[in-house]
Amino acid sequence: MAHPSQLGFQNATSPIMEELLHFHDHALMVAVLISSLVLYMISAMITTKLTNTSTTDAQMVEIIWTILPALTLILIALPSLRILYLMDEVENPHLTIKALGHQWYWSYEYTDYKNILFDSYMIPTTELQPGHYRLLEVDHRMVLPTNSPIRTLISAEDVLHSWAIPALGIKTDAIPGRLNQTTFMTTLPGIYYGQCSEICGANHSFMPIVIESIPLKHFEAWSTMMST
């Protein structure tokens, strides 16, 4: 999760987030190189004593400064399009969960099981247990098996919400009357925190998202307990 004075992204805990971090570093290096080149050219033009007032055109220079930006855009666009394709791909999910946004809490339904559905409310500050995070802990976590493709169907009952977990690289809008979907896979057991990322009213900051990723055998035991 995030920590004080953090400047970068949270550590990646899903393949998609790892790809997003690599793309961020790639695009940042391109931006640094372009900025350095422009700064050097500006400095050279300001400090030089050479002048040439008789030049009316320079077709070779114009060709170069047209082709180079085009190649740079292609260098950025290709990995970006690849990640967009990977984020939209849905291939044989092991589990499907429906997440429904309300003012101001989330409800979850495990569509592969008959009786697993619950509401997830933020725990008030006065009721927090030692080790819990203020404004981030909920009374019922969304429990998932580790290393399993998960499909999440996301919608809202009243106004716009957004289901977002930064460590997993997920941010999907919850729109009333519309069903969006996203897929992800957690690579490590742990607890991942997120929050609604669409301003949805007075208690927008008080509807956190908590995912608990556990090994498959523990998830099977949990699902059996919840179904009975």
Textual characterization of the structure:
This protein has 228 residues and is an alpha+beta fold. It has two domains: 15-88, Helix Hairpins (Orthogonal Bundle); 95-227, Cupredoxins -  blue copper proteins (Immunoglobulin-like), CATH 2.60.40.420. It is 33% helix and 25% strand. A five-stranded mixed sheet has the order 3-2-1-5-8, with no helix packed on it. A hairpin with a 2-residue loop joins strand 1 (95-102) and strand 2 (105-110). The radius of gyration is 24 Å and the shape is elongated.
Number of structural domains: 2
Overall CATH class of the largest domain: Mainly Beta
Sketch the major β-sheet: 5 strands, mixed
Strand order of the largest sheet: 3-2-1-5-8
* Count of individual helical segments: 3
What is the average per-residue confidence, as pLDDT, rounded to a whole number?
Answer: 90
Order of helices and strands: HHEEEEEEEEEEH
Say what oligomer this is.
single chain
* CATH level-two architecture of the largest domain: Sandwich
Total beta strands: 10
Shape: elongated
Report the helical percentage: 25-40%
Instruction: Measure the end-to-end span.
Output: 33 Å
- Strand portion, in percent? 25-35%
